[in-house]
Write a structure and sequence with these properties.
By secondary structure, the chain is of the alpha/beta class. The protein has one domain: Collagenase (Catalytic Domain) (3-Layer(aba) Sandwich), CATH 3.40.390.10. Helices cover about 30% and strands about 20% of the residues. The protein is built from five helices and eight strands, in the order βαβββαββββααα. The strands form two sheets. A five-stranded mixed sheet has the order 2-1-5-8-7, with helices on both faces. Strands 3-4-6 form a three-stranded mixed sheet. β1, α1 and β2 form a beta-alpha-beta unit. The structure holds zinc ion (2 copies). One zinc ion binds next to α5. The site of one zinc ion has 4 residues, from α3.
Length: about 170
């Protein structure tokens, strides 16, 4: 039997999510940081961790994409932080998927690609979604940023906020 994720119940003063990035400009990163901070302000300190170099081991030449799982494992190996989000400009894939917007390990970290995300709004939305996973949230069927999106269309139509149910789970409902 699979046990449900244990939700992080962080002490807001000491728990953080560090943002790392590759080939993304400062302005974009700051916008994403602000969007994350406004959603998760009672749960996490969103801090900038700095630039990171992509690793060759994660690159698949045939696909011209990066393997999300390898990148995320690498991130967690080299950065010993509470939780981390790595935002990259190159396209990402997982073994059984043509592409993914992002990929997360519960309570540890996530990687996100802006490759297919054409607007600021979409980049912010998918960042919020991935950090939701990091905090222990699953996909959600409500009108909620945690809705699963398998296509750009689905990503566009979902809202950029967490539903009440998800907010309650990660204890940011005030
Ligand atoms: Zn998801
Ligand atoms: Zn929800």
């Amino acid at each position: 039997m699979i046990s449900p994720p244990r939700f992080l119940k962080p002490d807001s003063k000491s728990f953080s999510c560090e943002i790392f990035y590759s080939q993304i400009n400062d302005k974009e990163i700051r916008q994403i940081q602000q969007a994350l901070a406004s959603i998760y302000k009672n749960a996490l300190n969103i801090v900038l961790g700095g630039e990171l170099e992509l690793i060759k081991d994660a690159y698949n030449q045939q696909r011209d994409q990066y393997n999300a799982n390898i990148l995320l494992r690498h991130l967690l190996e080299i950065k010993k932080v509470d939780t981390a989000l790595w935002i990259i400009k190159k396209d990402l894939y997982c073994t059984d998927m043509n592409f993914v917007f992002g990929y997360a390990f519960y309570q540890k970290g996530a990687v996100l690609s802006t490759y297919r995300l054409s607007s600021r709004k979409l980049k912010e939305k998918e960042s919020i979604h991935e950090v939701g996973h990091v905090l222990g949230l699953n996909h959600c069927r409500n009108r909620c940023v945690m809705q699963f999106s398998n296509s750009l269309f689905e990503a566009k139509i979902k809202p950029s906020f967490l539903c009440e149910n998800c907010r309650r789970k990660i204890m940011i409902l005030r």
